[in-house]
């Protein structure tokens, strides 16, 4: 049941923090927020994946325990799952931890100058997030397996536009088949153990 959310380990009763200013919050909350802000890119992807699996499984368990899933509950659950899918696929660092890149994205990254090495790049979900959400919402869905099937690829913005157009025409193709059909070549992450 939704009322049990505060019984989960590590959850905070939002009603107890509503209206608090930053200085009113307990020291542990302030220091944790500061650590998260400073260290977002330093999280280990395997720990992000584990945390997302726990979160998704908890949300799905509560969702499936409901006798009547109202449109409002469905809306919130879909929004939460969408965010969890993003975090799972980013793995703590949107581009650095992405396993697949296109050749053009690697070239774009290499030619970028200045502070933003990722200018002109986008993270493309091989399987749409909406499809992944539908798969997760099925009773007894294997959350981890479904999340791991949500592969991503770093592409250029122009490739993203091309992919989006062709995906609408050929929804039957896997992302790899689609890329091949429009002559987009993928390569393994160029960082392979280094910092992108």
Summarize the structure.
The chain has helices at residues 14-17, 27-39, 45-65, 71-90, 103-111, 129-136, 143-148, 157-169, 175-181; strands spanning 100-102, 121-125, 152-156, 186-188. With 196 residues, it is an alpha+beta fold. The protein has one domain.
Provide an overview of this structure.
- The protein is of the alpha+beta class and about 200 residues long.
- It has one domain (about 25-190).
- Helices cover about 50% and strands about 10% of the residues.
- It has nine helices and four strands.
- Strands 2-3-1-4 form a four-stranded mixed β-sheet, with helices on both faces.
- α3 (about 45-65) runs antiparallel to α4 (about 70-90) and α4 crosses α6 (about 130-135).
- The longest helix is centred in the first third of the chain and has 21 residues, at about 45-65.
- It is globular and about 55 Å long.
- It starts with 13 loop residues before the first helix and ends in an 8-residue tail after the last strand.
- Residues about 1-25 and about 30-40 have low confidence and may be disordered.
Our measurement of the CA-to-CA distance between the termini, rounded to an integer number of angstroms, reads: 43 Å
CA radius of gyration is: 19 Å
Number of folding domains?
Answer: 1
Portion of residues within helices:
40-55%
Structural class: alpha+beta
**Number of DSSP strand runs:** 4
| SSE sequence, one letter per element | HHHHEHEHHEHHE
Largest sheet: 4 strands, mixed
Number of alpha- plus pi-helical segments? 9
Low-confidence stretches: 1-26, 28-40
Report strand %: 5-15%
Oligomer classification:
single chain
């Amino acid at each position: 049941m939704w009322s049990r959310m505060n019984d989960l380990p590590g959850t905070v009763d939002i009603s107890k923090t509503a209206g608090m200013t930053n200085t009113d919050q307990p020291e542990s909350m302030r220091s944790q927020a500061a650590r998260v802000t400073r260290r977002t890119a330093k999280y280990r992807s395997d720990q992000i994946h584990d945390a997302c699996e726990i979160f998704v499984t908890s949300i799905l368990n509560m969702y499936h325990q409901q006798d009547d899933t109202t449109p409002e509950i469905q809306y919130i659950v879909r929004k939460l799952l969408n965010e969890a899918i993003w975090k799972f696929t980013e793995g703590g660092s949107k581009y650095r931890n992405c396993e697949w890149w296109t050749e053009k994205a690697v070239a774009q990254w290499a030619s970028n100058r200045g502070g933003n090495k990722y200018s002109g790049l986008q993270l493309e979900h091989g399987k749409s997030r909406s499809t992944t959400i539908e798969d997760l919402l099925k009773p007894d869905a294997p959350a981890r397996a479904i999340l791991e099937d949500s592969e991503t690829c770093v592409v250029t913005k122009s490739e993203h536009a091309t992919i989006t157009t062709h995906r609408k025409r050929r929804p039957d193709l896997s992302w790899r088949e689609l890329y091949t059909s429009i002559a987009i070549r993928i390569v393994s992450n160029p960082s392979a153990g280094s910092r992108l």
